[in-house]
C-alpha cells in the first residue's frame, strides 16, 4: 500500500498531472503527499532570496492545485544539489513512492547532461515513477512494475494488481 508519496518537481514537467490522476485510484487516495522543490546552491544571497521566493510560490501553487486537505499535503524546500537532496529526502521521509519528471534522454545523454531523475533512479532505494515530460496525462491504461531482489520491493507487484481489481478505469 502506498501511504507516503514524494513529488520531486521543478515545475517544468507533467509529474504533477500524473499525481493528480493517481490520486483518483482507490489505493492512493489517502496517501500523504510531500511536494519537494530543490534550489541549487547559490553564492549570491540576492539570487538565493529570489529563487527561494519563486520556489515557495511554486510549491504552494502545486499544493493548492491538488485540492486535498491541508493535513494530507506538505511542502518542502531545500537548498543543494537536486539529485543528492531528492535521495536524502526520500530516505528521511521513508516514502513509498517518488514521482519525478524525466526528459526522456538516452543513457549517454542523461550522463552527459547530468540528469537528476537518472541519478535518483539508479541510487535511490525507493520505488519511483518517472513521468516523461512531453506526454499528455489522461488516465492510466497500463502499469509496468520492475523491481530487484531488495526486500522492500518484493511486494511491488501487489499495488498494480490491487488497482486493476479496484479501479474499473484502469481495466
Structure description:
By secondary structure, this protein is α/β, with parallel strands linked by helices. It has six helices and five strands. Strands 3-2-1-4-5 form a five-stranded parallel β-sheet, sandwiched between helices.
Question: Any key phrases for this structure?
Answer:
alpha/beta, globular, five-stranded parallel sheet, 171 residues, disordered C terminus, Rossmann fold, 6 helices, single chain, 18% strand, 5 strands
Provide a brief overview of the structure.
The protein has 171 residues and is of the alpha/beta class. Helices cover 37% and strands 18% of the residues. The chain has a five-stranded parallel β-sheet with strand order 3-2-1-4-5, sandwiched between helices.
Topology summary:
Blueprint: E1 4-8, H1 15-22, E2 32-39, H2 45-65, E3 73-79, H3 82-93, E4 97-102, H4 107-112, H5 116-123, E5 128-132, H6 158-166
Helix pairs in contact: 3-5
- What is the string of helix and strand elements? EHEHEHEHHEH
Give the overall average pLDDT: 77
Named CATH topology: Rossmann fold
Corresponding CATH superfamily = HUPs
Can you name the CATH architecture? 3-Layer(aba) Sandwich
Q: Report the end-to-end length measured between terminal Cα atoms.
A: 19 Å
Q: What structural class do helix, strand and pairing data support? A: alpha/beta
* Major β-sheet annotation: 5 strands, parallel
CATH class: Alpha Beta
Indicate the proportion of strand residues.
Answer: 15-25%
Major sheet strand order:
3-2-1-4-5
Please work out how many helical segments DSSP would assign.
Answer: 6
Shape: globular
The level of helicity is: 25-40%
Number of folding domains? 1
Overall number of strands: 5
Cα gyration radius (Å):
16 Å
